[in-house]
Write a structure and sequence with these properties.
This protein is of the alpha+beta class and 445 residues long. 28% of the residues lie in helices and 23% in strands.
C-alpha cells in the first residue's frame, strides 16, 4: 500500500508539473518576422491582428459568428440579413454600428462583389443580389471584407484583438485589446518585423531573437536540419499561370498549347522539393474530391500540333513577387514553352509593357467550395457563373472556366512557419491565418 501511495504521489507530481509547463499564461511579447508587407491582402498578418469580419472560419473550416451573432437568408439566397453584435467598439472608441459596417463593406466592394446592394435595417445589415449567393457567410470571412472605419486623423481603425501601438524603427507594434468581444489575447504585445529576408529570419531564430519566422514551401525539408520546429498548413497557395486572352494569345488553341507544354512534375520534384501537390484544378482536391478529373500531365506533341500554323511573335513571361523559387519556376516554364516551339523571354521586373503570361501565387481563404471558386476566379480579375451549390454544379463551372485557358493551375503549396521553443498553442485557422490571439508565451508571468 505504501508503494502504491508513493507511485501515485509521483504520478500526481508529474501531472501537476506537466500542467504547469503547458498552462497558458497572460503576458509577454511575441516576435514575428515576415518577408512581405504585413498589411497586404489576403494573408497579411497585421490585418487579422487588428480587424474582424462579420463571420470567421474556425480551425475545422466551419463558418462561425464574429461581428455578427446570427444570420439568415430569404428569397432563395437572394437576400441575407446579418444581426450585429452589441457593445463592440472600434479601437478609437467609436461604437460599431450597422451604418459603419455597411460603409466598410461598400468600400471593400468598390471593385465589385457578389451582392448588388448592402443597406442597414435597425441593428442589422442586409445584402441583396440579382443572383443567389448561398455562400455569402463564407465569403464575408475573407480578409478583404474585414471591417474598419477611418478616424478623424485618416487612420483605419478596426475592432480586432490587437491595437496598433506604433512603428518604432520600422517595427510594427500591436497591443492586446483587453475589451475584445472574443476575449483578451494571451500575449501583451506582438512585434511584427516586415521585409526580412528568409536568411535573416532564420538567423534571428537560431539566436533566440524572434519567435515566429516564415518557411517557404521549397525550404520545408531544410527546416528540420536547421533544428526548426515547423507549423505547416494544408496546401492553400495556388501556383498558376495567368494568360492574356487578347493580342498575341487571343487564339484559345495557343493558350491550350501553353497549358499542355508546362512540366508540373519538374516544378514539384526539383524546385519545390515534393512539397504540396501537383494540380490542374483551381480548387484543391481535398475540398472538392474531383480535382483528379483535370489532368495535370504534360503533352508536348499535342502542344506542337495546337501551335503549328499559329505561331505568335515573341511572348513575355513575368513573375509576380520576388520569391527566388518563383523566379526559378518561371525560368523552367520558359524552357518548357521553348520546347513547344514558342518564342518566350522573361519580362523585366516592374516593366511598363503588359506581359503575355504571368506566374502568380494566389492564397485560398475559404473552405466552402462554391465560395472558394468565386474567390479564386475573382483573384484573377475574372468572374464565373455557378448555377447551384452542389458539387456537380461547382465542377461544371470550374471546367467551363478552365476551358478558356486563361488560367493554368500548376501546384498547390502549403504555408509554413517555424516557431520558437517558448511559443505555445499557435495554430492555423482553416483560412490559413495564424491564430495569434490564442497563442501564449511559456515564460510569461
Amino acid at each position: 500500500m505504501f508503494r502504491r501511495f508513493v507511485i501515485s504521489g509521483v504520478l500526481l507530481w508529474c501531472a501537476l508539473g506537466a500542467s504547469a509547463r503547458t498552462r497558458q499564461h497572460y503576458g509577454g511579447t511575441l516576435r514575428v518576422e515576415v518577408q512581405s508587407d504585413p498589411w497586404q491582402e489576403p494573408d497579411g498578418i497585421a490585418r487579422r491582428l487588428t480587424m474582424d469580419g462579420l463571420t470567421q472560419i474556425d480551425s475545422a473550416g466551419a463558418v462561425q459568428p464574429a461581428l455578427s451573432v446570427r444570420w439568415e437568408s430569404q428569397n432563395d439566397d437572394h437576400r441575407w440579413q446579418f444581426w450585429i453584435r452589441n457593445n463592440v467598439q472600434f479601437h478609437d472608441g467609436t461604437p460599431l454600428t450597422a451604418d459603419a459596417l455597411a460603409a466598410s463593406l461598400t468600400q471593400a466592394c468598390r471593385y465589385g462583389c457578389a451582392w448588388s446592394k448592402v443597406y442597414t435595417l435597425g441593428q442589422s445589415v442586409v445584402f441583396t443580389s440579382d443572383l443567389p449567393i448561398p455562400d455569402l457567410p463564407a465569403q464575408l470571412a475573407q480578409a478583404k471584407f474585414l471591417i474598419s472605419h477611418q478616424d478623424s486623423q485618416g487612420a483605419q481603425q478596426g475592432t480586432g484583438p490587437f491595437f496598433i501601438a506604433g512603428f518604432p524603427g520600422g517595427v510594427m507594434l500591436f497591443t492586446a485589446n483587453n475589451d475584445h468581444w472574443g476575449g483578451r489575447p494571451f500575449v501583451d504585445t506582438v512585434e511584427v518585423w516586415p521585409r526580412r529576408s528568409i536568411r535573416d529570419q532564420w538567423m534571428d531564430m537560431s539566436v533566440g531573437r524572434t519567435d515566429v519566422v516564415e518557411v517557404p514551401a521549397e525550404m520545408l525539408r531544410q527546416a528540420p536540419q536547421q533544428h526548426l520546429t515547423v507549423l505547416a498548413s494544408r496546401p492553400e497557395n495556388l501556383l498558376l499561370l495567368q494568360i492574356a486572352s487578347t493580342g498575341s494569345l487571343a487564339n484559345p488553341q495557343l493558350r491550350q498549347a501553353i497549358a499542355l507544354a508546362v512540366d508540373r512534375s519538374a516544378l514539384y520534384n526539383v524546385i519545390f522539393q515534393k512539397q504540396g501537390e501537383i494540380t490542374a484544378s483551381i480548387l484543391p482536391g481535398a475540398l472538392t474530391g474531383y480535382a483528379f478529373l483535370f489532368s495535370p500531365e504534360r503533352h508536348l506533341n499535342r502542344a506542337h500540333e495546337l501551335r503549328s500554323g499559329a505561331t505568335p511573335p515573341q511572348l513575355s513571361l513575368a513573375v509576380e513577387g520576388g520569391n527566388p523559387a518563383m523566379q526559378l519556376s518561371a525560368e523552367r516554364i520558359v524552357l518548357n514553352l521553348r520546347e513547344a516551339g514558342f518564342q518566350v523571354q522573361m519580362a523585366p521586373a516592374g516593366g511598363k509593357i503588359q506581359p503575355d503570361i504571368v506566374l502568380r501565387q494566389i492564397h485560398l481563404e475559404t473552405t466552402d467550395p462554391r465560395a472558394a471558386l468565386d474567390e479564386m476566379v475573382e483573384a484573377t480579375g475574372q468572374r464565373v457563373s455557378i448555377n447551384g451549390s452542389d458539387m456537380a454544379s461547382i465542377y461544371r463551372a470550374e471546367k467551363e472556366f478552365l476551358a478558356t485557358y486563361t488560367v493554368v493551375p500548376l501546384l498547390w503549396l502549403p504555408q509554413a512557419y517555424a516557431i520558437g521553443d517558448r511559443v505555445r498553442d499557435l495554430r492555423f485557422a482553416a483560412d490559413g491565418s495564424l491564430l495569434i490571439a490564442d497563442a501564449a508565451i511559456e515564460d510569461a508571468k
